[in-house]
Amino acid sequence: MELRWTDVNAIAIALEEAHPEADVVNLRFTDLHKWVCALEGFADEAKRSNEKILEAIQMAWLDERD
Fold this sequence. Notes:
By secondary structure, the protein is mainly alpha-helical. It is built from 3 helices and no strands.
């Protein structure tokens, strides 16, 4: 499955699987960006992200943990 920046929930699930030990609340957006781009199946351009998208991914990741 190809992931794009708009696939917020799927990215959150993949990040939880890849980084279950991560402190999501205190995660820097630069690290989050790097981790998303490194996900298997991620096929979007790195420069297409922005703070709003990264924040949405972070919130979805927190929801995934609950």
